[in-house]
Write a structure and sequence with these properties.
single chain; 38% helix; two-stranded parallel ribbon; mainly alpha
Length: 122
């Protein structure tokens, strides 16, 4: 997997994905598929690839799996962000590995509208 060097320009699609990630308000999330749909291009895997390669400089924890499961390997870092931002979470079931909660998608999902006009789900 080649990482982007300092001198390389960010691919246009990656720039667009990262711009969407930056627009997601604190305490809200979009799925990989939501981001692709909002852009009208690509799909969940393409968005996931962009986030894996270039997402470290944006609020990566706000772009999530559709099932609300936290990103494997980054669960604790993401969980700290979710708790700090007040992102709605569901308690982990006893069978959940490490008893890590999931995102409460029905309440946390953002539709991409202007955050100033969006009222938080309760």
């Amino acid at each position: 997997m080649d990482r982007m060097s300092v001198d390389e320009e960010l691919p246009e699609y990656a720039e667009r994905v990262l711009e969407v990630a930056e627009r997601i308000p604190p305490g809200r999330v979009m799925t990989y598929g939501d981001v692709a749909e909002w852009l009208g291009e690509g799909g969940p895997r393409q968005v996931g690839r962009v986030m894996a390669l270039y997402g470290g400089a944006v609020p990566w924890w706000r772009v999530v799996r559709a099932d609300g499961v936290l990103l494997p390997g980054s669960e604790l870092r993401a969980l700290a962000h979710y708790r700090e931002e007040g992102t709605p979470l569901r308690k982990a079931g006893r069978s959940a590995e490490g008893h890590v909660p999931r995102i409460a998608m029905a309440r946390a999902r953002w539709d991409g509208r202007d955050p100033e006009r969006v009222t938080p789900h309760t």
